[in-house]
Specification:
The protein is an alpha/beta fold. It has helices at 42-52, 67-72, 77-85, 89-103, 118-123, 126-129, 149-160, 219-225, 238-246, 268-281, and strands at 2-7, 27-31, 37-41, 57-62, 106-111, 134-138, 141-144, 165-171, 179-187, 190-198, 207-215, 251-255, 261-264.
Length: 287
C-alpha cells in the first residue's frame, strides 16, 4: 500500500510564523537515537510512523512556499560529514538514520498550486496511487501511540472488513471544526459510518475524523461529483466519503484508544499544547 501525505496548507492560523516556515515543519519533542530526546518536524514524525509500519512509497502533496519540505527530505551527506568532523557524532547518527529511511523509500512530490481543499489534493495523486487502496495522512495532525498501534488497527480494520474507506476518529470538545460522524457501533472502538458532515453548525455527535484515512480508488469519482464550497471554493474530501456511503460503500471509523494521543498544531494554542504534551512524553527524559 502507498502513502499520501498532505502538506499544501498555508497555515493561516499560525501566521506570521508560517509565512516563511511550513506549519508541517514546526518542531515537536521526540525520541532520537539511543532513546535520547530531540526535536523533529511534525512531517518527519508522520513519515517515520508510516515507514515503521511498512510503507515504502510516499507522495507528498505540497504547495507554494513548501520547498523547505523537499529540501528536508533530500539527504545531505556533506552536512553529516561536517557534523562528524566537528565531533557531533550523535547528531550525525540521528540524521543518517533518517536519511537511511528516505533512501530506502520512493518519494515523490505533487504540487497543489492554490488552496483548493483536501478533495482536490487527493485527486492530484490518482496517477501515483493507481488502482490500489492507499493511506492518506494529514501533514499537521498526528497520533502518538506505542508501536503505532493506531495505524496498525486502521489497516487491520480496512483489510478485514473489506472496507471502501476507513479512518481514525476521536471525541472532540468542539465538533463544529471537524468532520463529524453518525455511526453504528459494531465492535469495541469500531463504528460503521452512516453519515459524515463537515463543520456542522449543529453537530450530530462529538466523534470527529482525525489524521489518517485508507481509501479505495472508488473515492475518485465521488470527489469529482463534489461541488466547491461557495465561500472558500475548496473541494472537501468529506462530502466524497458521504457520497461513497450513499452509493452503498462500506465505511468504518476506528476510535482512538485512551492511551493514544492526538497532536494537532492547527493554531497557536494547539501548538503550545502539542509542545507541552510531547515534552512531557519525551523531553523530560533528559533530566
Amino acid at each position: 500500500m502507498k502513502a499520501v501525505i498532505l502538506a499544501a496548507g498555508i497555515g493561516t492560523r499560525l501566521l506570521p510564523l508560517t509565512k516563511g516556515t511550513p506549519k508541517e515543519m514546526l518542531p515537536l519533542f521526540a525520541v532520537g537515537k539511543g532513546g535520547k530526546p530531540c526535536l523533529k518536524p511534525v512531517l518527519q514524525v508522520v513519515f517515520e510512523q508510516l515507514y515503521d509500519v511498512g510503507f515504502r512509497e510516499f507522495c507528498f502533496v505540497v504547495g507554494r512556499g513548501k520547498r523547505a519540505i523537499e529540501d528536508y527530505f533530500t539527504p545531505d551527506r556533506d552536512f553529516t560529514k561536517y557534523l562528524i568532523e566537528r565531533k557531533k557524532r550523535e547528531q550525525a547518527k540521528e540524521l543518517k538514520e533518517f536519511y537511511r529511511k528516505i533512501e530506502a523509500s520512493t518519494i515523490i512530490f505533487v504540487n497543489q498550486p492554490g488552496v483548493e481543499g483536501t478533495g482536490d489534493a487527493v485527486l492530484r495523486v490518482r496517477t501515483f496511487t493507481g488502482i490500489e487502496p492507499f493511506l492518506l495522512h494529514m501533514g499537521d495532525d498526528i497520533i502518538l501511540s506505542k508501536k503505532n498501534t493506531h495505524l496498525r488497527r486502521l489497516i487491520k480494520v480496512f483489510e478485514e472488513r473489506n472496507a471502501d474507506a476507513a479512518f481514525l476518529v476521536t471525541r472532540v470538545k468542539d465538533p463544529t471544526l471537524y468532520g463529524v460522524i453518525v455511526s453504528k457501533l459494531v465492535a469495541e472502538g469500531l463504528h460503521e459510518v452512516k453519515t459524515i458532515v463537515y463543520q456542522p453548525k449543529v453537530p450530530p455527535s462529538n466523534l470527529s475524523d482525525v489524521a489518517a484515512y485508507i481509501l479505495k480508488p472508488s473515492i475518485y469519482p465521488e470527489i469529482k461529483r463534489v461541488k466547491p464550497d461557495k465561500e472558500s471554493g475548496e473541494i472537501s474530501l468529506i462530502p466524497a466519503i458521504q457520497s461513497l456511503i450513499d452509493m452503498g460503500g462500506k465505511v468504518y471509523a476506528v476510535e482512538l484508544q485512551e492511551e493514544e494521543r492526538r497532536i494537532d498544531i492547527g493554531n497557536a494554542e494547539l501548538y503550545r499544547e502539542a509542545l507541552d504534551t510531547t515534552h512531557q512524553l519525551y523531553g523530560a527524559r533528559e533530566k
